[in-house]
Each structure stands twice: as structure tokens, then as C-alpha cells.
Amino acid sequence: MTSNNYQYHCSPQWFVTDAMQFIPVSGVVGEPCAGNGVISEVLKLYDRVTNVWTNDLDPSWDDADYHLDATEEESWKMFPAADWIVTNPPYSGLDFLILEKANRYARRGVLMFLRHSFTEPCQNRANWLDENPQSHELVYPRYRFKENKYGRLGNDSATVTAYAWDKKAVSQLCRSRPAKKIAGFHSSPKNAPDWETVKEIVEQQQKRISFKLIA
Hints:
Blueprint: H1 13-19, E1 27-31, H2 38-43, E2 49-54, H3 73-78, E3 84-87, H4 94-105, E4 109-115, H5 126-131, E5 136-139, E6 146-147, E7 153-154, E8 160-166, E9 173-176, H6 195-208
Parallel strand pairs: 1-2, 1-3, 3-4, 5-9
Antiparallel strand pairs: 4-8, 5-8, 6-7
């Protein structure tokens, strides 16, 4: 169990399996906010991902390779090199602190699962967003991450969107993804598919998808 001092929202597997159809994540991937490892474990199923390193500030996630603060510059100097950074970061302003560093650090790009309102030109990130427009934007149906104080699974204040910053992209892709088109979609942790189903989804994807990566 993770400490109450840390933000934790367990990502569904379909965040990764759906986004990987549109975003050319490959090579060495870093996951700086790994939590229970859902994102990193799904990434490892892809042939085009050669290695995944993980980090989480919360030391109770003892499977993580590192336990550093991803909002701090010094932490990024200690992480291994990565082609891509892929994560579902904590929100409340910490997401932008992590994104800004991840984008400078990643050799190819960043994929983050963020509130759809993230690209609102708020004072703290408006200039950065203007100078660093996202290459991909996949808007997802609402996901009920955790129980509220009444014991019911509740929605966040905005739906989650997969935003990517691909340094080699030559155009932008923006799509809304209906639930019926998302393989393995589930609206809450209570109806998540088993791991064998997730592996089958990835295997089927890899049979039909071939990215022509920009050299």
C-alpha cells in the first residue's frame, strides 16, 4: 500500500495499448512515476521497446529501479538515458514540472497521460506550451481511478488525454477515442481485464501495425 503522502492513481492498461497505436514510442523508455508498474509492464510487451527503466518517489513501490523526485533537475541527471519518457504523473502542477524536464531529457519524445485541461494556457505553462506544441492529442472517455470519501468510484475533474511531444513529428494528430474503439476498455479498476487479455491485445496490434519511424 502506498503512503497517503503520495499521489497515486493506478493507470488502466488501455491507456498504453491505445496510445501505442498512434504514437511511435520505441527504444529505451523511462517511466518516472511508475507506481505499481502498469505502464512499464505493458510497454515491455512491445517489440519496438528495447528496455524500460522505472522510478517512483514513494519507496513503498520497491520494484522501481529508482526512488527520486522527478520534479527535481538533479534526479534527471541520475536517470539513465531514454529515447522516450512515458508516464501518468501526479497532477496539481507537479505534472508540468515533470514534463518540462522530461522533454529536455528525452532523445525522441514524451508521452504523458494528463487532464484534458492541461493545455489551457495557464500562467505557469502558457509560454512553454506555445513554444512546444504537442504532436499528438488522444482524448479518452472518463476513467474512475479511485473511491471517493463515500466509497464510490468517482471521476476526476476532467477526462484524461494522451499528450505526446515527438521531436521528429512533422504534423499534429488530434483524435477523440470512443470507448467502443479502445481494445480492453474498462471504466474502473473493478472491471479490468486479466493480464493474458492485455498480452493478446498487444500481440494483435503488433501483427497489424508497422510504424515508419522518422530517421
